[in-house]
Amino acid sequence: MTKQSPTYFTYVLRCADDTLYCGYSTDVDARVATHNAGQGAKYTKCRRPVELVTYARFASKHAAMSAEWHFKQLSRSEKERMLEAVTNEQPFEALLAEAFDIDVRQTDIAHDIESSLQSLHDKKYAQFMAPLMPTITPERIIGVRTPDLKKLAKTLAKRDDVELFLNALPHRTFEESQLHAFVLNGLKDYDALVEALEAFLPYVDNWATCDQMRPATLAKQPERTAALALSWMERGQREAMTYMTRFGIGVLMRWFLDEQYDRAFMEAVVNVEPGEYYIDMMRAWYIAEALVKQPADARDVLERGALDTWTHNKAIQKARESRRVSPEMKNELAALRR
Fold first, then answer.
1. What Rg value do the Cα atoms of the chain yield, rounded?
2. Nearest Cα to Cα of residue 173 among 198, 150, 203
């Protein structure tokens, strides 16, 4: 899925009358040739020939245009001093970035996302969300509501450069991770989705992003998806990636407790090493759901004491809170509490 970002250049020309001209382009050599042909700009048309002094590289058109604008605001002497300071160790983009606070690496889509998220920012909502996300520092929570994030994700998914955002891992904010999850939910190509999940899962760092990744495309190939879920659970435990393990269990819970159910899937969930809160909570949730959809096997898990005490009791609690569990079963489950 990797897609290379185009490079944008802010360039400086010295004209025949010793004045300076600054512009931006994706191809500096071609642009210089155009100027010398009298087709580049009105200013250089009557000041030919021109020669390239230096150029700066940026990841986005926005950054290149910003650098051009700021450079043009400098006096002639300030421009010359900056140009004289350019070296291999201190290239033009570094001088521009330092002088005008320009992010050299930021792509256009990253800039657009940042602007959109800031426009949707709700400080009170950010304060509300922070305690619910203990694995994320409050500074990383902008405070954008889920419906707004889903709308933005649909817009992003239509962009030709969306893969630049998906490949820019890890994300800086919680909301960027949420956008990533919602974009993946909309992917229709199975192989592309799996590749994207494999790339993203190691960077998921909170329960909300993990649980809101529910790409329906996974249901297209149940055998492959079941094998993937088991592999994510195994790798997540082996490499201490909590949310990869949690995601794998979630996949089995959402798509493999009905027609595609296999007792081996439940045993795989039971056998996950206990002790990590966000994994154990998902294991409990799985068993609670199984008590509705596969009650005989789920009851057997509880009756034979296959789970650790915390997960056992939490599964019973969640099942007894469900409206889909009969009063009779709720009473029977209460008797199984440890």
1. 28
2. 203
Going across the sheet that includes 51-58, the strands are 20-25, 8-14, 51-58
The least confident of 150-164, 220-234, 268-282, 307-321 is 150-164
Separation of alpha carbons 107 and 103, rounded Å: 9
pLDDT at 223: 97
Task: Name the nearest CA neighbour of 207 among 102, 140, 278, 267.
Answer: 278
* Cβ partners under 8 Å of residue 43, min gap 6: 15, 21
Q: Please say if the pLDDT value at position 4 is more than 80.
A: no
The domains located in the chain, with CATH, are 8-100 (3.40.1440), 108-334 (1.25.10.90)
Q: What is the value of pTM for the model shown?
A: 0.77
Element holding 55 (H helix, E strand): strand 51-58
Closest to 209 in 3D by CA, of 141, 270, 128, 121? 141
Query: How confident is the model over 86-111, as pLDDT tens digits?
Result: 998 899 999 999 999 887 777 788 88
